[in-house]
Amino acid sequence: MLKPRFSAVAEAFSRVVGKGDDRGAALCVYHQGVPIVDIWAGTADVKTRRPWNENTIAPVTDATKELLAVAVLLLVQDGTLSLGTPVYVPNHVRLHRRRGCQRQAAGGTGVQRSPVTTDPERTG
Prior knowledge:
two-stranded antiparallel sheet, extended, 3 helices, 6 strands
C-alpha cells in the first residue's frame, strides 16, 4: 500500500533494500492514524532465499536511541530544550565521563546510560 504522493519514499527504499544479497526490510508509515506507506522488499531468509512479504516477522533491536532522538528533537522544536543543555550522568562507566550535553545524549556519541539528570546537585 502506497499513497501516490509518497512514491518517492518507495523509490528511495527500493534503491537501498533488496539489491543483490541484501536482506529484506519493511517500512510502514502512519500519518494522523492512517497508513500512507506500507512496503517491503528483499530476502527474509538468506539460506532459503524466501522473499520478504507483508507477513514477515522481524525483530526490533536497539531502537531506543532513535526514539530518544525523536523525542529530544521534538522538545527542541517546541523550544522546551536546547541541544546545548548540559546533562550530568552520575555513574557513567563506559566512557568514564560525567558531563556532556543533550546533543551527545540524543546522538549516542558520548553521554549515555541512565540515570541522566540536568540537575548537577543530583549527580550522587
